[in-house]
Every structure is written in structure tokens, then in C-alpha cells.
Amino acid sequence: MLFLAELVTLLDVRGLVSWHVVIGVLLVPPALLKTAVNGWRMLRYYARGRTYRAAGPPIVLLRILGPFVVLATLALLGSGLTLIALGEQRSRSSAIPLLGDWVSLHQAMFVFFDVVAGLHVLARLVPALMLVSGRRKEHPAAAGPVPGRTARVAVLVLTVAVAAVTAALVLPAASSWKNDDFGRFERPPGASAHP
What we know:
68% of the residues lie in helices and 0% in strands. It has 195 residues and is an all-alpha fold.
């Protein structure tokens, strides 16, 4: 849901920059939690944990895409946090070899993320649709309640709280991005803002 809201801010990123920053920061703790959980599952599977081995590995495409999804997610969020920390002027003046500045790097990471996350969603969607349509049966190891519900809920509540506090603390740093039109269409000296 947050990711979709973040995509909506891209429709008018200049006008919705505060929302873009807040939602982006809100996405960091859940993304880190998701990365940690999937890392734990992978570790338990390869360490031959009985329950994890019984459930079997994910499909090959997901195992190939997994590291790229993690890398793209962390690079996108990390470059966004760097933009906030640097502010608009420094983000646009800092040169990065082959990419130009930090804004260009963030945009490139968005494209990279879109490609790998899109493939990941498609790879997840097909088995889910087969499961819902009855063409595929649920794995026997997946049946029944999963222990540790209280701990999972507590971790989720803590993650949401950390995300909210972090977003509130970071919002004032987004003010440097509100001041102009992001430098995309520079006016000649002395020209008025409105024709």
C-alpha cells in the first residue's frame, strides 16, 4: 500500500515532494524487516531446517531474482535517504561517475527496482493465481497455524512505530526540496516565473 502511495507521488513529484519523502522514509523499516525475514528463511533453508526444507525452495526465477530485488530495494531507498541528507543543491552538484549527480542515481535505481520488482511480482502472481483457481494445491507443510503470532505482531507494531517516528524526524530535512522547480527548467536571469 505504501509503495503504491509512493508511486502516486511521482505523478507530481514537485508538488508532492513532502509526501514522497515521508512515504519513502516510512518504507525503509518495513523493507529492512522484509529483507531480514527473507534472509532468515534462506539461511534456515540452506542450514537444513526441517520445516523450511519440507516447504521446499522457491521457484528458480525467484531464487535468481531475490538478490537483485534486495539490492535494488536497498539502493533505491539508500539513494533517497542520501538525497534527503544532502539537500537539493548538494544532490545536484555532487558528481557520480557515469550517472552525473545523486538525483540521477536515484532515478536510475528506481528504473532498476521497477524491472526486478516487476519480474518478482509476476513470478509470485502466477503461482498465487494457480493456488486461488484450484489448479495448484497448497503444500502440506504450509497447512496449519504458524507459531509465534504474538511475536510477529509485536515486531510489526514496532516496525510501524519506528517508521512513523523516523518519518516525522526526517520531514523537516525535505524542506530544501520545496523551494523551486527542481532545477529542471532554469529561467534566464531576469525572466519572470509566469509568461
